[in-house]
Amino acid sequence: MSLEYLEPVSVEVLETIEGLPDHVLGKNIEIFTEKSGIPDISEIKICIVFINETRNSYYKITQFDSNKFRKEFYKLYPGNWNFKIADLGDLPSGKNVEDTYFALSEICSELMQNNIKPVIIGGSQDLTISLYESFLKFDKLINIVSVDNRFDFSQGENLISSRSYMNDIITKSPSRLNNFTNLGYQTYLIAQEELDLMDKLFFDAYRLGEVLNDLKITEPVFREADIVSFDMKALNSIADGSFLEGMPNGLDSRAICTMSRYAGVSDRLSIVGYFDLPNNSFFLKLFSEVLWYFIEGFQCRFDEYPIELSHGFKKYNVSMSDREMIFYKSIKSGRWWMEIGNKNYIDNKTKSSALLSCTYQDYLDACNDILSDRWWKATKRS
Q: In angstroms, rounded to a whole number, what is the distance separating the alpha carbons of residues 150 and 287?
């Protein structure tokens, strides 16, 4: 059983919980303790796992203190959540990095097999490899969304690092990667070769300015994701003098909380990881809210994946100059999808239609004879 790799939450944290009010999170989630053992996961919907593996990090990052974070997170009050959450403790680093990758992959696979959403916190972003590999036994194609100021295709001398882990994923054979989407990249941090590769593979990418100008454009992207990987170095370091080392521009606290909530709302999403976490008091408070919003989003899921077009959807036909486009709007959620002309498109399990999540603006653009770039790339990938 892969959960045996995990270590319990420290006694220090448990003693802190005792002094908290009865209704806070710390007293309303299942916790892996040395005394009680691993919780019964049969009725759990979200499991949190902490990890500190940074040996393949491209950066010199301070070890994230999971216990200090728990003390902040456990103080928060839950929303009107009707499901159970568990803190499964910490995954210690293996003898070598490959051991850690393997253990994390096995843990995620086991949790998903039990219809549980793993939330992985800590370590460096190369651990996204483990999240990807945990899907391989399910025999399905995978969409990865990375919230990051870089693409992480190739940097430095290491074969695998937090700046080059996507190389390992896209070159695995046989490939199970259907699409990779980056949200928040900054052009001056990206080599032209990486931009060319994104275009060649028909992957999607949104510049930081696009994201900040309209956060709603990211919602359909999260709706298509199986895995979401947050690199918290993408945050704006100006928020606090000691907050981050590096870039002065980036996502602000509002943006990261909104995007975390969008990830939680996604009916398709199976795993989320938050990596490269700063270790100071300001960030601990902010990240507590980021994680809270993911769980709040999970509570607000609409149960619209896979799509059932037979009821609850309005159909819109749009005549463009060179093609007919079909859009669908959910009566329940108000969200939009567009039909992909290529019937081999693999992202919809109903077999009757091939759909891609989109925005209302995509529909308006089609009415004005403007074809969505995401539609074009999805058709090419298929």
A: 21
Q: pTM for this one?
A: 0.94
Tens-level pLDDT at each residue, the chain (382 residues) = 799 999 999 999 999 999 999 999 999 999 999 999 999 999 999 999 999 999 998 877 778 999 999 999 999 999 999 999 999 999 999 999 999 999 999 999 999 999 999 999 999 999 999 999 999 989 899 999 999 999 998 765 455 678 889 999 998 888 899 999 999 999 999 999 999 999 999 999 999 999 999 999 999 999 999 999 999 999 987 654 444 555 789 999 999 999 999 999 999 999 999 999 988 888 999 999 999 999 999 999 999 999 999 889 999 999 999 999 999 999 999 999 999 974 444 444 434 348 999 999 999 999 999 999 999 999 998 7
Kindly list the structural domains of the chain, giving each domain's residue range(s) and its CATH number in brackets, ordered by start.
2-299 (3.40.800.10), 313-381 (no CATH)
**How many helices and strands in the chain, by DSSP H and E?**
12, 13
String of DSSP letters for 121-176: ESS-GGGHHHHHHTTGGG---EEEEEESSS--SS-SS-SS-TTTHHHHHHH-SS--
Token pair, residue 288, equals 């507590």
